[in-house]
Design a protein that fits this description.
Elements lengths: L26 H15 L4 H9 L4 H10 L1 H12 L2 H6 L1
Helix pairs in contact: 1-4, 2-4, 3-4
């Protein structure tokens, strides 16, 4: 891969932007659901999903895990994939 020096006006520079939400909307829940649905569509199995939130390597998912806890994340995983109990019976 060719090395390129960074330029102050680089058009490919990563930029973060906040999006205003309606009052009462839980941004952590929206982001967690978005991450879980996206990784599920990429083929990530249910049993690996929590690892994405626990790992500090995945900053976006990990900040939700640190702020809201495992039960919060597990609830959303269950909503996206269906509860683990119902899948074991099937």
């Amino acid at each position: 891969m060719a090395e390129k020096h960074f330029e102050a006006d680089d058009p490919y520079e990563l930029v973060a932007a906040r999006v205003p939400l309606e009052p009462g909307v839980d941004a952590d829940e929206l982001m967690a659901r978005c991450f879980i649905e996206e990784y599920a569509l990429l083929g990530t199995p249910r049993h690996k999903m929590m690892q994405l939130f626990r790992s500090k390597f995945f900053a976006g998912t990990n900040v939700i895990y640190e702020n809201r806890g495992e039960e919060f994340v597990q609830r959303i995983i269950d909503e996206v994939f269906g509860s683990a109990q119902s899948q074991e019976v099937s």
